[in-house]
Amino acid sequence: MTKKISLGVAGQKKMYTAFLIAAVILFVLTSVYTNFNPMTLVKNGDAFWSFITEDFLPPALPKASRIPGVLSSVLVTLALALSATTIAAIFAFFIALFGSEKVSPFPKFAKVVRGFATFLRNIPALVWAFILFSSLGIGTGVGFAALFITSLAFMVRAFVETMEDVSQDCVESLLAVGASFPQRVSQAILPSCLNGFLSWFLYCIEVNIRASTIVGMVGGGGVGLTLFTYIKGFQYDVALSIILLIAAMVIVVDRITGRLRKEISK
Amino acid sequence: MERTIGNSAAAQNVSKKEAKISVGCNQKNRFIPIFMTGTVLLTMISLIYLNIDWLKLASRVPQIGEVFCELAHFDFSNIDQIFSSILETVSIAVLSLLYSLVLGIVFGMLAARNIFRIKWLSVLTQSVFTFLRAVPTPVWVLLMLVCLGMGPEAGVAGLCVHTTAFFTKSFAQSFESIPDETIEALEATGTGRISIFTNAVLPAAFSQIVAWTGMRLETNFSECAVLGMVGAGGVGFVISRNLQSYEYGTAGLAIVFVFVIAYCIERLFVALKKKIAQ
């Protein structure tokens, strides 16, 4: 008879089993709790299909008089994402310098900075938007502020991690020869971490393009608001063309950032 | 002899003026300054285009403090409702993650160029999912709400669309990073495509899959909190409704819960990633 030689590592198999069991338990628990049954999707398949074919297809253009408005709302979304991310990146750079124990002139302070960033980051952008809407009113400025807060916190964490990963030796040796804090930053951290910073910045732009669409939906202006209006008004065919427009916008931005990232890391 | 002359000349040179040794790195990427100026310019243009009334915004900043003050006055009377809504949110996030994990592995297998080696299949899969990924999640949830009615089903289904698209792309990337030699060696022994995938590719990509899943759980949870605001139930609904009806105490408590859970998820996966990396 043929014997099999086991090729797997014993410990690995145990880990797989543990993961699998955990996944199954979670699956059962959450399925029971949410009452979600994939069969309902299948059962509603007909309604789903007719909804797609009758209401959605073919995509219709909005009224000719509205087209410039829709296009300018796309521009608002793009401008919102870009400006909020850039300004947040500039702030995040300076805050991150104080958030890393090895770099900061006040190492005891670093934990506080990071804790604050963690607090800001772990509250979703839309919750921030709602908090700000209830205090500042509705408008593009508030959308800007909501995006600014979350991307600031995200980039502080990313920048701190980049700095801790890269430049320990450089910083330490400069510290040993008595370089001042600005010198350490400009001579050790910037040259070694700038690429990392910029690629996090690009990632953040990608995230924020989506986020600014979403924040727009609840009142931050831009193409999200336009889309929301059409969906609420049951004009699904027009909504579909706006969805396509959003998809095109996101894909184009992703392509551009991908190219830029390659150029930067050369 | 020559050396001493050279040295003394150098010494004279130094005594004349403080000579500096250039420490800077000469191999600079020319593109980076261009990129940074371009970004700053574009940002200025977009700020002008947005035409935000900064003064008005700044004059209202003190109100943020007031709102936070009111949010901090926790109102514990609705805690059971908050608790069940947060449990619902977590369940939606986890359930959609599990469904998408399975779907993502299957579609990632189709999308990776080195598994089946059928070019049109991977191009087709990737472009479909690029489109699905490009549309923000709340849009999918809104559409599912229209089809399935209010409730967690729409949330799960809507989240699944985006999460599956995300997993397909990232898993395909991980699968493609497996060295070709491994696959060729197995091909030479006559192993079938599926068993190459399950026995060689999947175990090798396992740690990356765990890392992606952890990252996605964070995003899913925060998006899930968002979904309630467009009407799919869960804690987002509680937050937005209470904020709109000025019941800041309840909303504040719900936000704190969201924060605590998001923080726990983050810590958990930092620990898990460290363990797997060992």
Beta-strand share of residues of chain B: under 5%
What top-tier CATH class of the largest domain in chain B fits best?
Mainly Alpha
H/E element order of chain B: HHHHHHHHHHHH
Average pLDDT taken over every residue of chain A: 81
**How many structurally independent domains of chain B?**
2
Number of strands of chain B: 0
Helix content percent band of chain A = over 70%
Strand content of chain A is under 5%
**Euclidean distance between termini CA atoms of chain B:** 58 Å
Question: What is the share of helical residues of chain B?
Answer: over 70%
Overall 3D geometry of chain A?
Answer: globular
The name of the CATH architecture of the largest domain in chain B is Orthogonal Bundle
From the 3D structure, determine the CATH topology of the largest domain in chain B.
MetI-like fold
Counting helices, strands and paired strands, the structural category of chain A is: mainly alpha
CATH class of the largest domain in chain A: Mainly Alpha
Give the oligomer, counting copies of the same chain as homo and different chains as hetero.
heterodimer
Helical segment count of chain A:
11
CATH topology of the largest domain in chain A: MetI-like fold
* CATH architecture verdict of the largest domain in chain A: Orthogonal Bundle
What key phrases describe this protein's structure?
heterodimer; A: 266 residues; mainly alpha; MetI-like fold; 2 domains; 0% strand; globular; B: 278 residues
Structure description:
The complex is a heterodimer of chains A (266) and B (278). Chain A is mainly alpha-helical and 266 residues long. Helix content of chain A is 82%, strand content 0%. Chain A has two domains: 10-56, no CATH class; 67-265, MetI-like (MetI-like fold), CATH 1.10.3720. Chain A contains eleven helices and no strands. In chain A, helix 4 crosses helix 10 and helix 9 packs antiparallel against helix 11. Chain B folds into two domains: 2-52; 69-277, MetI-like fold. Chain B is built from twelve helices and no strands. Chain B has helices at residues 2-16, 31-50, 54-59, 61-72, 79-111, 119-134, 137-148, 152-176, 180-188, 193-230, 235-244, 248-277. The radius of gyration of chain B is 28 Å and the shape is globular. Chains A and B meet through helix 1, helix 2, helix 3, helix 4 and helix 6 of A and helix 2, helix 3, helix 4, helix 5 and helix 6 of B.
